[in-house]
UniProtKB/TrEMBL annotation:
Organism from which the protein derives: Acacia crassicarpa (northern wattle)
Stretches that traverse the bilayer: 43-73, 356-388, 400-426, 490-510, 516-535
Keyword set, alphabetical order: Cell wall biogenesis/degradation, Glycosyltransferase, Golgi apparatus, Membrane, Transferase, Transmembrane, Transmembrane helix
Gene Ontology BP, a term: cell wall organization
Subcellular location: Golgi apparatus membrane
Annotated SUPFAM superfamilies: Nucleotide-diphospho-sugar transferases (SSF53448)
Uppermost EC category: transferase
Keyword Kinase tagged: no
Name listed for the protein in its UniProt record: glucomannan 4-beta-mannosyltransferase
GO MF term (any one): mannan synthase activity
Domain Glycosyltransferase 2-like: 190-388
């Protein structure tokens, strides 16, 4: 005899209560949606479309200019007075200006030898070169290692000094400012700055200094960054794509049209007189490099970007390090814009159109609008329109404009065109972090002046390649990425947005007519990967 399965009954009273609650929620939603939600969401769509158009026009403008620059502009050697400094047997080294090299460091155990060795290997008369290692390290062991490395090079006849401070006041800006106060610096005309992971080519100064020497109105020569670990993982490939566009297009356009761009903080040579005239290094924001560049530009100084002058460097290969870096790079410019916009408006030394370029293009569109439109439009407003079908987003705003912007961005790294789709999804995820940092900078909130040095792991890719050809007894083990605790790995904000986008995607799949669910599910996966902290492990 087959036993009857037990049956469970919900009391009518409980069932009626649940139906009543659901009905009340539905009634409240219908009452609020038409008079409040729909108008607000429509307003959000209009604002986002306006921001998208601003970004599109900016990208299109830079695309046109860069084509003209490549096809018709004269090369820097033809636009500026440029004469290489010859080696003269009779004059010796006296025709070479004295150059100061500054290398700021903070607990750089893995890479300190890289920058010191590269600086000491520069092809420049040793009696016309002064190297400062500005060590703010808090680890006594690292301090000892760096000092020993400096002593080793000094024993070879290199004019190198090891300099420390009692505190880290002003962080990098404070260290650079303190370095310029030394008595021997008064004999130096120019200063080249290299972060601890940067390695300039031996002819770096011989190619950069003649531009400054022959053009007294030129304050800065900026080199392009190249990345030794770009192929280490998917995270570094994504960064390479963004930074290559910045150097290939943004820096080149600024240099060619207005002789202005943001100093990248490293791999650049400054005229010391320009630094002093601009007021020196200031630590009021986390972008002391951009701060100095804007102030120098407002005093009439010009900048030159040389795309074929390159310095190798390292990209952050862990998500934690990358997030800290992006917070600083997004929060700092917004905070500087807040503090300098009126100073730029009132300035009388620069032309009106240069003011427009600096305020609108350089700051407002690239440093503020670019982050906000990516996040609010494609991660908030567009998914919400699925839940409120009364709100319509035109296809040119949802598809055409972002597609064209993405294609324009691809010119920086042609070898990674096949990764464009992944890059879009990753940039959308990071726009959440950047938008939050931008608001912190604009409103000068709690973390506005947070400075966390980007962790470097050394050239692990090259280490692995070199290890494969060494004998087992001589193997140099590559630096391992630090393991994060489980709680530190989770990024709850990204996971929350992953859940939101997944819900919107499911709703669109069941009830929608736009077929946005394909994009939403893929974006959900991207937010989840970052939320669980695994993006830096994908090769």
């Amino acid at each position: 005899m087959v036993e009857a399965e037990p049956k469970f009954f919900m009391p009518d009273s409980v069932r009626s209560v649940s139906y009543d609650i659901a009905g009340q929620i539905q009634l409240i939603w219908e009452m609020v949606k038409t008079p409040l939600i729909v108008p607000l969401l429509n307003l959000g769509v209009y604002i986002c479309l306006a921001m998208a158009l601003m970004l599109f026009i900016e990208r299109l403008y830079m695309g046109v200019v860069i084509i003209l620059v490549k096809l018709f502009w004269k090369k820097p050697e033809q636009r500026y007075r440029y004469e290489p400094i010859p080696d003269d047997v009779e004059l010796g080294s006296s025709n070479f200006p004295v150059v100061l090299i500054q290398i700021p460091m903070f607990n750089e155990r893995e890479v300190y030898k890289v920058s010191i060795g590269a600086a000491c290997g520069l092809s420049w008369p040793s009696d016309r070169l002064v190297i400062q290692v500005l060590d703010d390290s808090t680890d006594p062991a690292v301090k000892q290692l760096v000092e020993q490395e400096c002593l080793r090079w000094a024993s070879k006849g290199i004019n190198i000094t090891y300099q420390i401070r009692e505190n880290r006041t002003g962080y990098k800006a404070g260290a650079l400012k303190e370095g310029l106060k030394r008595s021997y610096v008064k004999h130096c005309e120019y200063v080249a700055i290299f972060d601890a992971d940067f390695r300039p080519e031996p002819d770096y100064l011989r190619r950069a200094i003649p531009f400054l020497d022959g053009n007294p109105d030129l304050a800065l020569v900026q080199a392009r960054w190249r990345f030794v670990n770009a192929d280490e993982c998917l995270l570094t490939r994504m960064q390479e794509m963004s930074l290559d566009y910045h150097f290939t297009v943004e820096q080149e356009v600024g240099s060619a049209t207005h002789a202005f761009f943001g100093f990248n903080g490293t791999a650049g040579v400054w005229r010391i007189a320009a630094i002093n005239e601009a007021g020196g290094w200031k630590d009021r924001t986390t972008v002391e490099d951009m701060d100095l560049a804007v102030r120098a530009s407002l005093r009439g100084w010009k900048f030159l970007y040389l795309g074929d002058l390159q310095a190798k460097s390292e990209l952050p290969s862990t998500l934690r390090a990358f997030r800290f870096q992006q917070h600083r790079w997004s929060c700092g410019p917004a905070n500087l814009f807040r503090k300098m916009v009126m100073e730029i408006v009132r300035n009388k030394k620069v032309k009106f159109w240069k003011k427009v370029y600096v305020i609108y293009s350089f700051f407002f569109v690239r440093k503020i609008i670019a982050h906000m439109v990516t996040f609010f439009f494609y991660c908030v407003v567009l998914p919400l329109t699925i839940l409120v079908p009364e709100v319509h987003v035109p296809i040119w705003g949802a598809v055409y404009i972002p597609s064209i912007i993405t294609i324009l961005n691809s010119v920086g790294t042609p070898r990674s065109v096949h990764l464009l789709f992944y890059w879009i999804l990753f940039e959308n995820v990071m726009s959440l972090h950047r938008t939050k940092a931008t608001f912190i900078g604009l409103f000068e909130a709690g973390r506005a002046n947070e400075w966390v040095v980007t962790a470097k792991l050394g050239d692990s890719v090259n280490n692995k390649k070199s290890d494969s050809v060494k004998n087992k007894t001589n193997v140099t083990k590559p630096i391992k990425k630090p393991r994060l605790k489980l709680a530190e790995r989770f990024n709850l904000l990204e996971l929350g947005f992953a859940a939101f986008l997944f819900f919107c995607g499911c709703y669109d799949f069941v009830n929608g007519k736009h077929n946005y669910f394909i994009y939403l599910f893929l974006q959900t996966i991207s937010f989840s990967i970052v939320g669980f902290g695994y993006v830096g492990t994908i090769v």
